What we know:
By secondary structure, chain A is mainly α. Chain A has helices spanning 13-16, 20-63, 74-83, 98-129, 132-147, 150-168, 172-178, 189-213, 217-225, 230-241, 243-259, 262-267, 291-298, 306-339.
Amino acid sequence: xxxxxxxxxxxxxxxxxxxxxxxxxxxxxxxxxxxxxxxxxxxxxxxxxxxxxxxxxxxxxxxxxxxxxxxxxxxxxxxxxxxxxxxxxxxxxxxxxxxxxxxxxxxxxxxxxxxxxxxxxxxxxxxxxxxxxxxxxxxxxxxxxxxxxxxxxxxxxxxxxxxxxxxxxxxxxxxxxxxxxxxxxxxxxxxxxxxxxxxxxxxxxxxxxxxxxxxxxxxxxxxxxxxxxxxxxxxxxxxxxxxxxxxxxxxxxxxxxxxxxxxxxxxxxxxxxxxxxxxxxxxxxxxxxxxxxxxxxxxxxxxxxxxxxxxxxxxxxxxxxxxxxxxxxxxxxxxxxxxxxx
Amino acid sequence: xxxxxxxxxxxxxxxxxxxxxxxxxxxxxxxxxxxxxxxxxxxxxxxxxxxxxxxxxxxxxxxxxxxxxxxxxxxxxxxxxxxxxxxxxxxxxxxxxxxxxxxxxxxxxxxxxxxxxxxxxxxxxxxxxxxxxxxxxxxxxxxxxxxxxxxxxxxxxxxxxxxxxxxxxxxxxxxxxxxxxxxxxxxxxxxxxxxxxxxxxxxxxxxxxxxxxxxxxxxxxxxxxxxxxxxxxxxxxxxxxxxxxxxxxxxxxxxxxxxxxxxxxxxxxxxxxxxxxxxxxxxxxxxxxxxxxxxxxxxxxxxxxxxxxxxxxxxxxxxxxxxxxxxxxx
Amino acid sequence: xxxxxxxxxxxxxxxxxxxxxxxxxxxxxxxxxxxxxxxxxxxxxxxxxxxxxxxxxxxxxxxxxxxxxxxxxxxxxxxxxxxxxxxxxxxxxxxxxxxxxxxxxxxxxxxxxxxxxxxxxxxxxxxxxxxxxxxxxxxxxxxxxxxxxxxxxxxxxxxxxxxxxxxxxxxxxxxxxxxxxxxxxxxxxxxxxxxxxxxxxxxxxxxxxxxxxxxxxxxxxxxxxxxxxxxxxxxxxxxxxxxxxxxxxxxxxxxxxxxxxxxxxxxxxxxxxxxxxxxxxxxxxxxxxxxxxxxxxxxxxxxxxxxxxx
Lengths: 342, 330, 310
């Protein structure tokens, strides 16, 4: 029996490794490296916040709170900035973002509301009523919808749906009624909302369906044994049990809708028009624009110019709402967890 | 009362199967809701079928092999505006750069979160950070990227315009931003795969005297290869499908344009386009008025993304809608 | 300060009941092992003699029932009456088909696609397969082995069946006076009102196991069923909750026909008026409880009841 050093000869070669101290060193190093990567994420976020805000600050400070107000047409204002000819009575940084924010609010809220109803119905159908062959078709369909890039949605929207809406849903009378303010084409609130709904549907359907199929069988059996029919069981027991998932789905879908730029840029119309609900039904056919589409269309990528500051200000608003939604999602999860604790 | 019969089964004509669930006797409101559910489900299938068929028909009719090998050429006439070779290459380059950074970083961060995660408050912060990153709109990311690459520390990574100012736009810049986009997806799937591994795997390895790092490298990561792969493919799908970053950060030239001297580096530092920005540019929303080319490129894009989708489904073992859940949240 | 040390007393000589003369005592007389019970249960004859129901009438009748899952006939040619005013216990070893028989009484077996049946079950003379299934299940309610309260408040749980009863056009409001009254009444009958009565808006998931099961019973009772089916309701509960529920079951006899499946023979002795013993799907013996337990007519019954198998 060899009597050499304690770690060298007594151990089987495969198990020996590289010695205890060296091993601990590599382990410590690995932890540090990976930890640094993880902290890098936080650093990235911090950097993002700082740089965007710094570049947005000139726009905010020049306009104060009226940045959020409605003082005119943002596109005109941006054009003025680009040619460096300030609008009469204002500085070159003058900007009033309300039409954009209003467009964002409209499209997001409408799309999420419609998607909530449709996704719940579809998820219930998928998990409860659909016969097996139909389910085998519907699941790939939902996966397909989830995977389509937004530019393709935009393409179909602008080349197929918008013209259809233009021809069939907008009568000439309607067109005349607002012709003095804006030209109606098929690219408008309706088309944008419809396609946006379609884009956020798959997430909501997936989350809701997964939650519905996780509802314990004992609840469903118990409800059936009390003489309650299938639909009412679903409505009062299964959907209720799936509430946390539905809330999470709404938060995720809202985040997706808020950040959508390219599809809306192609489909929602050329002008940030302050769509006026008082116009009655015509309201739905007026073009809208959101901060994201304005950035995409008007910002060329230069830095330091008034246009750039304005674009970064819009980006700051989007960033802030994304952070807010993230927090809302966390809060929703916490409260739901507490209310359904077993 | 004891049964005196010794029959093995009842008479065949008395056997009844359970009736199919009938809702004829439900109240009207419930029947309406039931019908609505059916209508929604079938309607969704029809809408998707319409979209796919539309893209198929329009795309195939505009598609021909020449498009794949020709570069875009500036021309107002559609027949002479070339193909989308450069955008195809551009898509490939962007995806490669993106994944080259996102995959190792994502796996590393996920490993740290599940295997180390000390101190606890830091781990929670990083988790929230990943979630926040997942929620940042890609256009905001693009604007941030411009700042970093045009004026900041990394300005050497992008080309310069004639005036000598750094434009902040290049394949490298866009690729790095894309990796941020794909990062949460990879972290999510890798974490899920790691937490599903039974702890006895780790215990067995530690019991043999292996360090945590070796265990991770030799035991854990090889076991979750499908999980990592599915995260990578999900990330690729997201990168390939994104347009906002490309449009803002990659510049407006349909053709690849190098910047600077060295061959490979010049391409990477230069600008160009990808399939997505090509579609955008050639659609009525961009400058182009050749919808045919847009359809063709969109068709190719769609096929690529669907193929990736199929791969992910094949790789994942859970419920079939789980991949959407994974793709939506980290 | 640390808590005082308590010594655990181990009694190495457990109390064995003396072999009792036939008809008396807490055990089974016919050969076999004397089953010692620590609860002082009255004898079967004493109990049924103690509180006979005012009137006994037949509510359901099972005629030559066969039930199968797939190719496997789980219930074979069973004929049984179910009477209001008495508790019917279905006993037997695992796999004897007693749970399947119970579930067929409210057509819960139809949930399984592979189920097949032959024979007839009638409720008040009407074939239950001709009734509308939700109507049948309102009249014949069931309580399961594992308590399964819904993720709602206690009030909403107990009032669930009432709130969902489609009364033609008139929708019952959640908090209508009729529902409130019914909920409180059901909670009283289930013996739960004292414990939860002050706060009915609490989540039902926060209750203890025994309370949850009593809640499920209250929930089943609130809709005033005609027959109550209980599938091993106490198997997941501690002895005190079990005793409370058994008392409750005996008290229900008057208004409701009770059928209880149990593999706890002592429980069957405590609560049952009539007992049906099943073995491998066949009904081996059916009779008054004291007769089946103390003077079983069949050898197999004798073996089971004395603990020789199962």
